[in-house]
Amino acid sequence: EAGVVQSPRYKIIEKKQPVAFWCNPISGHNTLYWYRQNLGQGPELLIRYENEEAVDDSQLPKDRFSAERLKGVDSTLKIQPAELGDSAVYLCASSRSPGTGGTGYGYTFGSGTRLTVV
Amino acid sequence: DAKTTQPPSMDCAEGRAANLPCNHSTISGNEYVYWYRQIHSQGPQYIIHGLKNNETNEMASLIITEDRKSSTLILPHATLRDTAVYYCIARMIQGAQKLVFGQGTRLTINP
User: Fold this and answer.
1) Which of A32, A40, B60, B111 suits A100 as a labelling partner, its CA being 20 to 30 A distant?
2) Cα(A115)–Cα(A112) distance, rounded to whole angstroms?
């Protein structure tokens, strides 16, 4: 089975410019997550979707970040305008929702998008 | 989720067993211990999880102390490809809970 697919793999932009990241989760995984990972740190959750509904966006900086998951499959994370401090790796992950079968609730992560803001 | 504490770095010789410790003294009865690893330029990868019994799979073994306040991840025959950052996480299995990562242990396998 294909894993979680993210694009682009790398992105370099100037500050104040917009940027968008795309994620295609594993087929059948209803839960989708966006994490941000700063250099030398573990990933931190930005937003979690159950199907098309954002159920936990408490850590998403809503003044400049937005996300959507239309039709409950693919998702896009956007930053507008980007700041120098947004340079990080943005990771997407997906998992089965509880009660939908399968063993365990292990996440599957994509390889991430490395954003550099200059 | 209970806080976990891991050493920031460890070294191990290729072919030897790598034993990675994790302290989780405030873990609750319904929290599992999960281990993930992150190889350079990749996303975290699930390794193993357990509640109170020792667990083994094709990747590793997980030893949890009887009081559940600490655990050890064992890579029985470490290879150079096992060089990565290893994260120990305590989380409830019910519900699609977020993963709360610490800084993990940077394991370096030396030839």
Assistant:
1) B60
2) 9
Measured distance CA(A75)–CA(A68) in Å, rounded: 6
**From CA A1, how far away is CA A39, in angstroms rounded?**
30
**Cα–Cα distance, B90 to B100 (Å, whole number):** 8
Q: What does the pLDDT profile of chain B (111 residues) look like in tens digits?
A: 778 999 999 999 999 999 999 999 999 888 889 999 999 999 999 999 899 989 999 999 999 999 999 999 999 999 999 999 999 998 876 655 778 899 999 999 999
Q: How far is B91 from chain A (nearest CA, A)?
A: 11
Q: Do B87 and A42 touch (CB under 8 A)?
A: yes
Residue among B103, B76, B102, B111 nearest B1 (CA): B102
Contacts of B34 in chain A (CB under 8 A): 106
Residues of A in contact with B42 (CB under 8 A): 109, 111-112
A13 contacts: CB under 8 Å, gap ≥ 6: A19, A82, A115, A116, A117, A118
Strand partners, B62: B55, B73
Q: In B1-111, where do the E strands start and end?
A: 9-13, 18-23, 31-38, 45-50, 55-56, 61-64, 70-75, 84-92, 105-110
